[in-house]
Amino acid sequence: RVLFRSMFLMFVQIAIIAIFKSYPTVGDVALYMAFLPMWSHLYRFLRNIFIISCMLIVCALLFPVLWHLWIYAGSANSNFYYAITLSFNIAQILLVSDYFYAYIRREYHLIHGLYLRKKDGTEAALVLK
C-alpha cells in the first residue's frame, strides 16, 4: 500500500513539474499522461473529467492554429499563443487536482465503505423530497 501511494505521488510530482515548466513541450505532458491508464480504477471517482477532456482537446486543436496565425500569417501576436498555453495549463491543473481528489475519495471509501450507514451501523437510505 505504501508503494502504491508513492507511485501516485510520483505521478503527481511529474505532472506538477510538467505543468509549471516555463516552456512546456508535448513530451512533458505525454510523460505523465502515459501514467493515466495506471489509475483507471479512479475513473468512477472523477468529478469533472468531461469538462477537462474537452478543455484539453480544444487547446490541443488551437495550438497549431494560433501558432500558424502568429508565425506564418502574421495576423496574430504571441499573446494569443500565450493565452492558449495558460488555458492548457489550467486544464492540466484541474486534471491533476481531480485525480488527487479521486484518489483521496477512493481511500476514504476503502476504509469506511461505499454505502451510507447510520450511526448505529444500519444501512441508511437517501430520500429525495
Give a quick rundown of the structure.
This protein is mostly helical and 129 residues long. It is built from four helices and no strands. Helix 1 runs antiparallel to helix 4.
Hey, roughly how much beta strand do the residues contain?
A: under 5%
The biggest beta sheet, please? none
Mean pLDDT across residues: 88
- The helix-and-strand class reads mainly alpha
Helix content: 55-70%
| Poorly predicted parts | none
Number of strands: 0
Q: Which helices and strands appear, and what pairs or packs with what?
A:
Blueprint: H1 2-19, H2 26-33, H3 49-73, H4 78-112
Key traits:
129 residues; mainly alpha; 4 helices; elongated
Can you offer a commentary on this structure?
The structure is a single chain. 67% of the residues lie in helices and 0% in strands. It is mainly alpha-helical and 129 residues long. Helix 1 packs antiparallel against helix 4 and helix 3 packs antiparallel against helix 4. The protein is elongated. The N and C termini lie far apart (41 Å). The model has no long low-confidence stretch (mean pLDDT 88).
